[in-house]
Amino acid sequence: MSIKDIITVPNETLKKISQPLEKVSTNEKKLINDLFDTMYASKGIGLAAVQIGVLKRILVVDLSTKDEKRDPLSFINPIIKKVSNETSIYEEGCLSIPDTFIEIERPKICEVEYVDINGEKKNLKCDGLLSTCLQHELNHLDGQLIIDHLSKLKRDSIIKKISKTKKNPDR
Known catalytic residue: 137? Predict the structure, then answer.
């Protein structure tokens, strides 16, 4: 498999809505493996296909720590079916928005319907960090970023800073 480049803000692809898959073919399985390779190489815990420029409704997650056995989860055409009224706040980072961390309040529990890598329909009730991570990655599939939770002024400031860093990588 291979490690792909992760696109970062202000790339407009990140604002596009990803398309559902009709079936899980060899190409999608390869894409999922590439997503895992890319996510692990970048030391992330979640990655959506749009973040490598592929507008398909696929995301991957692995919350295991470096001391634990990997626990890769892939989600095709995920849909949140239910969320709890109870919320939790996590400081979220994003591989497409380097060196930026934002406290975001989301439902503590969510139930997700999805298709697994074998093409089987599944349901998963998620709590805590898994719930937050899935909601974060699902936002990517809908063209939403964590900076969209901020005021326009703060969002523009972050994008400007990242754009400058891209032009002058030694900064």
Answer: yes
